[in-house]
């Protein structure tokens, strides 16, 4: 080789060339080392603070420990909303097998629905600290728990975590009043402090649970911990223990609530009992109810659809949102309004025929009694619930004084202090009708309102509140659920008023009206005379709310009508009449006759005033203090 | 005994003992400084796993033995063997492509029946500069265009075979070791500038032959934030480790990124980030000084070697060693894409320690077999 290279070679020159190249290379080496040092200078000096923060963010994690939720008690210390330990199945995706294998391993052990898996998959795609666990199923049955626990050692990344969850021992009778907690949704997080709810499973969704969320929730514990890249806690840097949520003590009497619910029988309806001395809600029933524990566990789509589509509307809170005609229960208030504005008096007599007409040949507004009541006065109009008396009274007054007077009792407003979602009902007025129908208020409209029908719509809580104000002789308390929070008396913002006194021109009219309502029971022709025979006095007023209007002269035949079209049966009452301890409103939807709510009310009076309940309610006694 | 200090050092390095044993004492000392520093970083990076440090000591010792044995072999024998070794290793690379074993979709090893398996591409790192140096040994420099093209083919064939395994990091090192020899041979600057101008075209065509995972690495390099928990994780965490170290570092064994395992591969490819976190920019500067000592000695040996073969080989070996370091620190600090290149003599494990030490053995041989002048 090399034989053909006969070129003259200058070895010195070649050596010099390579030497020069070595020097060039050395300069390049120094330049590139300079680039590296420059890069390090940029990262370590110029961007030092950014990366120091990043390193600390990596290392230090804030772990929030959800506080135990406050309990909810009734007035005797019966626990209505309890905390119980549950076991949740959680997965650390980085450690666990792939989804298909995980499904195969877990599905035979635990009942995990496709929705649970879908939820899990969507959580996987969200941003998450590596090695943070995702809840796959939030409530394992004892059976599932033991099955999984046995196999846990071969399920990498799968763990069972113990947490406290809500439990409602008395279920459906209390569901609408107490409400329930459910899984926190993205929407819930918009109205609370996200940081505080980290790690929390539940949030109050309805009822007392929702209104008092911040009180019941408490303050989460926060610990600053040092974690490694696998999310394992290496040491605790700082710790703040959780502050448990505060306990709520309700005015509610759990036995009364359950008893009222049971007494409604198979009817839909609502019962609201209020302590007139405090405005405290002793019972607030909406029937049918539902099992609130379903929502805590995470209700399935099918179960939810079943509740939602049920014709009896179990999810509908009738006590707060049910719009009913107050019917004849409005008459004592209408009578007081007439007295107040000089349109009626206790002495004036009125001939009550079977109907009332504004014009001699106009529409006939029929009385419930076909032949009429004959000569009556204001007191007797209450006792016998004379419709025509109130037709003419309302006609004479017109809507404006009616609106002004009934407003004082909370009609047309949401007056419940500590529950959200109540409906304002409808207390009509001139302005309302113009705005709503672009029509003036007709005298005929007043006539219907005179007996609590027509445009007027009220909710059970409204009628009960007005009833309690009447029982307290004009001292109107806005109704409230909670009596004390931990040991402190609950206070309410005075902005919209929490109580006020209704003063009549002649204050004696309160007593006379109550007398008249007592005679509804004691008088031989009183509409609630079936309630006679108690050792205490009951003041009451019956009502029958028309579900649809009958045409002129049409005969009313209760039996031939579909039950859904039966009149609503209503009753307001309080006892003892001279010093009321309890004021009740009850409505049986399509109950037909007002004897049902009257009987129910009497049973509740007996039970509450004598503290005597049927034997099956003894278990509440055992739960209480 | 009244000699000035520097003369004493020269006297020491020229001592008879070193000439007899063919040890270049300055290179040896520089390597020992680097290794000692590397072992202390490894102790921290391994989570204070002394057993891992011991295994590394064993590897470095084997490398040292290989180095000292090769130092005994006169360069002329190496030169004569160069083409045969080259052909043999190319043959082995063909064998890898045909019968290779490996993992994760890469075929890098050859199984010796009944024995261990080994990586022919590692050997190519040594043999490639030998081959190019041999080619120019008896040809006048600077090379002609025809010679340049011939050498480029010699470089390209094994490089592409290694890249095909696929092992981009090693292919890169094999390629540059040949290119460096070509550069030192005095290839004209117009060719160098021409190649620089053609680079974008090459990058573009390279993109189309790359594997998806290789493309992914490049994409991650360009925008690590696009997948912070997946492929971007490594580079984000290593930058965080380096940056949070600051000027003086967090202290030995105090690096949170490294000690809490946020830093992946902290004892292998990303070990420099541990140093940067715990000893800061100052620590990195000192480590680079240690590397520069080795490189400076290597370039000195190259510049003063006896013939073209030795000069080209020694220079290429030294510059390839530098490329190792530059690519590794560049990728860990986020200015180069993540290719699997270890930090030479510091990263844990790998056959690379043995091959690197073998090349230093060649350097020592070149320096110590010169005829006395």
Q: Would you write up a description of this structure?
A:
Chain A: Pathway: Cell wall biogenesis; peptidoglycan biosynthesis. Chain A: Residues 269-602 form the Penicillin-binding protein transpeptidase domain. Chain A: Keywords: Carboxypeptidase, Cell inner membrane, Cell membrane, Cell shape, Cell wall biogenesis/degradation, Hydrolase, Membrane, Peptidoglycan synthesis, Protease, Transmembrane, Transmembrane helix. Chain A: InterPro entries: Beta-lactam/transpept, Beta-lactam/transpept-like, PBP_dimer, PBP_dimer_sf, PCN-bd_Tpept, Penicillin-binding_protein_2. Chain A: Catalyzes cross-linking of the peptidoglycan cell wall. Chain B: Belongs to the SEDS family. MrdB/RodA subfamily. The complex is a heterodimer of chains A (625) and B (373). By secondary structure, chain A is of the alpha+beta class. Among the domains of chain A are: 66-248, Penicillin-binding protein 2a (Domain 2), CATH 3.90.1310.10; 316-478 and 495-576, DD-peptidase/beta-lactamase superfamily (Beta-lactamase). Helices cover 36% and strands 19% of the residues of chain A. Chain A is built from 23 helices and 23 strands. In chain A, strands 2, 3, 4, 5, 10, 18 and 19 form a seven-stranded mixed sheet that branches. In chain A, helix 10 (254-263) packs antiparallel against helix 22 and helix 14 runs antiparallel to helix 21. Residues 549-555 of chain A have low confidence and may be disordered. Chain B is mainly alpha-helical and 373 residues long. Chain B has a domain at 24-53 and 218-347. In chain B, 70% of the residues lie in helices and 1% in strands. Chain B contains 15 helices and two strands. Chain B has a two-stranded antiparallel ribbon with strand order 1-2. In chain B, strand 1 and strand 2 (117-118) form a beta hairpin. The model of chain B has no long low-confidence stretch (mean pLDDT 88). Classes of the chains: A alpha+beta (625), B mainly alpha (373). Chains A and B meet through helix 1 and helix 2 of A and helix 8, helix 11, helix 13 and helix 14 of B.
